[in-house]
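ugh ok fine here u go
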Amino acid sequence: MWLTARFWYEIASAFGFGIASSLIPVLNSEIFIVGSLASGLLGPLEVSIGLALGHGLGKQIMFLAIRKGRQLSVFSHRQKKPAQPGSWRCRWQRWNTRTAKLVENPRWGMPILLISAISGIPPVYLVVIYAATTRMNFWWFSVWVTVGFFIRCLLLALATRWGVHLVI
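structure:
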């Protein structure tokens, strides 16, 4: 099972889709899981491993691009206008600051990231953007987003496999 060419092909195809779906939000990993399992093209473990590793790598790319991109001179030379007290910009800045501090906090940041990766609430895309703008450790981020997405994919893959067998 582990050393067959088909096993590695299945992981590689899910890995490629995982990278693409982590960077392009309209490419839905859940639909890929259901479609590939319902058609019998991929197994539940293979699709889960491949998508989780691909999704983890894609989110790492996104994390580093945001973190390093903030240091570019294109973004650093602009002067920000102060927000008027009580305006929507002022409320938005306060909300952003509170959210970034929550994601950055060692006690809450990793659980938020893990819950987001497993459930999709809050969306992982937004959590990655916030995490990249904070001092969150890159390696802990990488581990938890990959583990969380693996759990999510495996649960959906097993539910799909079980549901397909009920219908057939």
